[in-house]
Design goal:
The complex is a heterodimer of chains A (86) and B (271). Chain A is α+β, with helices and mostly antiparallel strands and 86 residues long. Chain A is built from three helices and two strands. Chain A has helices at 2-10, 12-30, 36-49; strands at 59-64, 71-76. Chain A has a two-stranded antiparallel sheet with strand order 1-2. The termini of chain A are far apart. Chain B has 271 residues and is an alpha/beta fold. Helix content of chain B is 42%, strand content 16%. Chain B has an eight-stranded mixed beta sheet, sandwiched between helices. The radius of gyration of chain B is 18 Å and the shape is globular. The chains are: A alpha+beta (86), B alpha/beta (271). At the A-B interface, helix 1 and helix 2 of A face helix 7 and helix 10 of B.
Chain lengths: 86, 271
């Protein structure tokens, strides 16, 4: 058992190296891409804003990534027509 | 031509401030005029590591806000007269640093000094991005440990995209400084080796600072390790690093495990 314990400890640095290599390969591909949600939020706001006044804090964009399917939920609160400026 | 150098890491506690003090002192000891600038607004510590904590009157934020002139905020080192400190403030206002203000102060410092060394705060927020903003070169301080290496990789990405030089299509020269390296543990496979870290981060190696009691002793007494104990392995690593920064070709000294022979004699469990 002692021998195994020692072997396991000996192995920890290579494990660290391999985990880092895999993780950083993934993180580097994400780098440089603009933040998709922020971009969507901005463009959606611009489109809606052409026709209806929208407040930036009343636009919610949410993305759920799943194994099979991802969903994008957009929730925009617009002022009622009565309170809208003429 | 003045060089602006940022000492950064992403992760906290890896030795940015210690390294800033040691590199700044080593450059000044080599005859250069140097200012070390603390960008860690709210949590300043470079003054303490440099032994100047009781001499702070004005700080970087005062200069940026126009409450003090640069000359009033600069503190001259009592041991080396070409070494100066510009301390951070202790304000909790995280917007105290402005992009324009930092640009103005850095430009003014470049007129007066050979080296402007910016000690970055941890993280990737405003303070860290402003510290690297005007850098010509960067020292990335990394511990041979997974979280530090990951954060260094992230910081390298920021240096390649968010700095003034990068935005103008240029490149910030990046140098890797591995600190708290324990050759014994690396040899036993318990710690990432120098080669592991180099292979993962793929930037040139500036130096390897071994885990050392001397570094703690130096900060205890408020003296950069290159002044406190110039013959220690850590001080020699910093002095060699500085010679490389100045373009000299110095053979790399990788700390070795002096205990290894004894361990072999008495068995590993004695270690």
């Amino acid at each position: 058992m002692k021998l195994f314990g020692w072997m396991a400890r000996r192995g920890s640095a290579p494990v660290a190296r391999d985990r880092l290599k895999i993780l950083l390969a993934h993180e580097r591909t994400l780098r440089g891409q603009p933040d998709l949600l922020a971009l969507l939020r901005e463009e959606i706001m611009a489109v809606i804003g052409k026709h209806v006044p929208v407040e930036p804090e009343k636009v919610h964009v949410r993305m759920d990534r799943g194994q099979m399917m991802s969903t994008l939920a957009i929730d925009i609160e617009i002022p009622s027509l009565a309170s809208a400026p003429a | 031509m003045a060089q602006v150098l940022v000492v950064t890491s992403g992760k906290g506690g890896v030795g940015k401030t210690t390294s800033t003090a040691a590199l700044g002192a080593a450059l000044a000891q080599a005859g250069q005029t140097v200012v070390v600038v603390d960008f860690d607004v709210g949590l300043r510590n470079l003054d303490l590591v440099m032994g100047a904590e009781r001499r702070v009157v004005f700080d970087l934020v005062n200069v940026i806000q126009g409450a003090a002139k640069l000359q009033q905020a600069l503190i001259r080192d009592k041991r080396i007269d070409t070494l100066w400190l510009l301390p951070a403030s202790q304000t909790r206002d995280k917007d105290a640093l402005t992009a324009n203000g930092v640009a103005r102060v850095i430009a003014e410092l470049k007129q007066k000094f050979d080296w402007v060394i910016c000690d970055s705060p941890a993280g990737i927020e405003r303070g860290a991005t402003l510290a690297m903003r005007h850098a010509d070169s960067a020292v990335i301080v990394t511990n041979p440990e997974v979280s530090s290496v990951r954060d260094s990789d992230r910081i390298i990405g920021l240096l390649d995209s968010k700095t003034e030089k990068a935005e103008k299509g240029g490149r910030v020269d990046k140098h890797l400084l591995i600190s708290r390296y324990d050759p014994g543990r690396a040899a036993r496979g318990e710690m990432l080796t120098i080669n592991d870290v180099l292979e993962i981060l793929s930037i040139p190696l500036l130096g390897v600072v071994p885990e050392s009691e001397e570094v703690l002793r130096a900060s205890n007494v408020g003296s950069p390790v290159t002044m406190c104990n110039p013959s220690s392995a850590a001080a020699r690593a910093y002095c060699d690093a500085v010679r490389r920064l100045r373009g000299e070709n110095v053979p790399m000294t990788i700390p070795t495990d002096k205990k290894r022979f004894m361990e072999k004699l008495f068995g590993r469990r004695a270690a």
